[in-house]
Structures are given as structure tokens and as C-alpha cells.
Amino acid sequence: MHAWLCENPVGVDALTWKEIPTPQPGPGQVLVEIKAASLNFPDLLIVQNKYQIKPPLPFVPGSEYAGVIQAVGEGVEGLKVGQNIACLSGTGGFGTHTLAPAALCMPLPDGFNHVDAAAFIMIYATSWHALIDRAQLKAGETVLVLGAAGGVGTSAIQIAKAAGAKVIAAASTDEKCALCKSIGADETINYTAHALPNDFREAVKQATGGKGPDVIYDPVGGDFAEPAFRAIGWRGRYLVVGFASGPIPSLPLNLALLKGASIVGVFWGDFARREPKANAQMMQQLAQWYGQGKVKPVIDRALPMAQLKEAYALMGSRSVKGKLVMTN
């Protein structure tokens, strides 16, 4: 097999494409021939040694992938050779083969293609856990999605619309705003045209008729957090999803008091670990929604696995709409 090896986590440039022995699955593992793997923000952090999980060196990055099972280890039940699966295991995806924990493999129903499957688990599980579980989103409520044209942002738009909510999507260009509209957003805010903090806050209030959003989905953090939170509605829920802009914001807690609002942490990975039955039910529902056409990953482009470094550069340029996927 071949894979992109991270032998020194100092950045993308240090990754090397190497031939390594194809492993055999141990107990509880399956060997997967990788057909597609998506690029997620943690994949950038992990090769820079900035992610909370620091794998032993050397390792193969690529947290999320889809492919075909080639071999099954001892004790594995419910999976078989030749079966199509998707998996989010944290590492191993940027290669031709990997060993995947059987417990983390999602069997793919007929019609679920590998490119979509490789871009599915992280963003839709995060957004479902955030909006449906943590925020208890109800039909008729209004959701403001920040960073709405990115991977988690596009999934949040689709899940909020499927739940019967009104969606206001905030993105950085007119082109990205148009994409958000095309996948269901009711209104958009181009935040480069609304200077932080006051203009952006006013744009949010105007888009909600002065009421403020019931739920704010924030995977961006940084300078957007406080003006967005100042615009939140009564009993609003502010979902802390991530910090793609870099800085971790500090919110004045008196704002939560004045709005009767909640600041809600969203950590899907630990939810999946601590509440596996609830997570499995969620993933089953999401797969059904995919089959019904209610959700579908927005794929910016699919590139050959050999062009991984180009994909990283595209992600760093913040020009990507939806997800980047590498294919074998």
C-alpha cells in the first residue's frame, strides 16, 4: 500500500508519499481499501501538532474516509469482505488502505456513493448533535449559521431546514451566500459587507425582524462570537462548535443573563464515545435522510490522492465551499 506519512508534525510540507507494508487486521479491526477521503480542519491541525489528539509518530493523517472492506479481524460481527463502509477514525485516511476499528464503521446503504460518504460523518453528526440534541431545535425557530458555506456550515443549513427552522446563513462572499441559498437558506448575510462588530450585529437583527435568532451555530469563533451573541433572541442557544478563525473568544457572561440565553458546548466526538447507542440511532436517521434527499454533502471538488498538498493549500485559502475529497 501507499500512504501520506507524517513523520515530523511541523506542517503539510513535511508529509511524504511512501510505500509501506499492507497491514492485516487484528481483533476488532477491518482492512479497508480507501476509495475516497475528505479533508477536515482537524487534518490540518494534526500535522501541525496543534490538535488535541497527538498520534504516535509516524502516522497517516486523514480522519474520515470511505471504501471497501478487504479483510476482517477476529471478533468482528456485522461487517464482511466486499462491504462498502464509511469511517471516521481520526487518522489513516490519506492512503490506499488502512486498518479501521470495526466499531466505528458505518455500513453504507445502496446508492450511497464513496465521495459523499467520505464527506458525511463528521459534518452531519456534528450538526445533528448540535442542533437537534444540544439546542433542541423546534420547527418555526430561526437559526443563524456562521461560516455557513463550509463543511459543517452547509450541513447545518440542511439539517435545520429538515427540522422546519428558518435559516440565516452568514458567509464571506456573494458566491458563498448564493451557494447557501441554493441548499435551503432563507436569507444570507455577506459579513465582509457588514463591518464587525456593530454592522454585523445590526444585519442579524434586521434579518430576524429585531427578535434575534433562537439558535446560533458557530464553528468560527474569533471576532464574530460577541456581536453574534449580542444579537441573540430571548432564551436563545449559542452553540460553541469550533474556532476555525483561530482565536478562542471570551464572551461577557452578563449577556447570557440579560437574554436568558444559554452557551452550549458541542463535542460530538465525546458524545459518540459516551453515548454510543444514541449516536448509532442518530447516524441511522442521517443515512435515511440522505436516502430521502434531505441532506447531501456539498463537494467543492474531488482531487486525486496524489494532490493532497494542493488540497491543503485550497483549504488554507478559505476559498472552499463545502468539502474537499481525495480519491483513489
Automatic annotation (TrEMBL):
It holds the Pfam family ADH_N. Its EC number is 1.-.-.-. The keyword Secreted does not apply. Keywords: Oxidoreductase. Residues 11-326 form the Enoyl reductase (ER) domain. GO terms for molecular function: oxidoreductase activity. This is NADPH:quinone oxidoreductase family protein. It comes from Variovorax dokdonensis.
